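Subject: design request, 41 residues
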């Protein structure tokens, strides 16, 4: 599963990551350069 998080709001991709993780998928996540709060790159 691939997720490209939007760059305008920090942590906007967290919900997408969490639901993918809980459903058992292997996840490739591309974060925004502004999003260093929870999932640092």
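Subject: RE: design request

Done. Sequence follows.
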């Amino acid at each position: 599963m691939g997720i490209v998080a939007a760059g305008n709001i920090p942590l906007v991709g967290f919900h997408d990551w969490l639901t993918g993780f809980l459903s058992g998928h292997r996840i490739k996540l591309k974060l925004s350069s502004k999003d260093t709060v929870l999932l640092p790159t």
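The chain is about 20% helix and 15% strand.
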